[in-house]
Amino acid sequence: GFEVAIVGAPNVGKSTLLNYLAGRKAALTSEIAGTTRDVIEVRMDLSGLPVTLLDTAGVRDTDDFVEGLGIELALERANSADVIIVLTDDGAIPSGINNDDNVLIFKPKCDDGKEIRGLSGVTGAGVDRLISEVTERLSSKSSNVGIATRERHRVSMAQAKSYIDAAMLILELGSDHYEICVAEIRSAISSLDGLMGRIDVESVLDEIFSSFCLGK
Questions:
Q1: Tens digits of per-residue pLDDT, 110-128?
Q2: Are 16 and 23 in contact (CB under 8 A)?
Q3: Where are the domains of the chain?
Q4: The pTM is what?
Q5: Pair 72, 66: CB distance under 8 Å
Q6: Which superfamily does 2-125 belong to?
């Protein structure tokens, strides 16, 4: 699935937005800045895409050691996310966010919905636009991942077929060449590991050669 991080200054409405998107109270909200210290994860379906929303600690300068650790973790998780939703009043991206290409900037707490890039986790104003933009970004990534995955699968199957073809030819040479045949089959199975998960090579070989009377 994909990860979507919500970042911004403390008490900017990140947890409220997360709760609105999740449809439940998944994160604690408070007027006290710095309430969120850890990364809160909520898994959900967003327009058919598997998404994990990340509610992160508010980014600010602080002398509080524990809060500082939370901010450090927030930046780390945000920078590795597929999309970063930045809630900011002045349009500035918080210091420490490195992946600008994945950033979507919205102005928080715009309950009346009059701001073009306004967003409210209370009234839901601007949320449809947010979901649309996030979905567009993720769909593009999903398409690219799908293409790469299909190509990798094609290559794996082509490799496996070449090993099987070689094994079939070697098999016709007789029992003296069975060890070479086994090596080719091992290589074919290894090529398919990425498609089917880990395969028990020995079980497959036992099944293949169970009908052969080896050593006779």
A1: 999 888 899 998 999 999 9
A2: no
A3: 2-125, 149-209
A4: 0.60
A5: no
A6: P-loop containing nucleotide triphosphate hydrolases (3.40.50.300)
What is the SS3 assignment for the chain? CEEEEEEECCCCCHHHHHHHHHCCCCCCCCCCCCCCCCCEEEEEEECCEEEEEEECCCCCCCCCHHHHHHHHHHHHHHHHCCEEEEECCCCCCCCCCCCHHHEEEEECCCCCCCCCCECCCCCCCCHHHHHHHHHHHHHHHHHHHHHHHHHHHHHHHHHHHHHHHHHHHHHCCCHHHHHHHHHHHHHHHHHHHHHHCCCCHHHHHHHHHCCCCCCC
Q: CA 4 to CA 134: how far, in whole Å?
A: 8
Pairing mode, strands 49-55 and 2-8: parallel
Three-point CA angle 83, 28, 113, nearest 5°: 60
CB of 7 closer than 8 Å to CB of 19: no
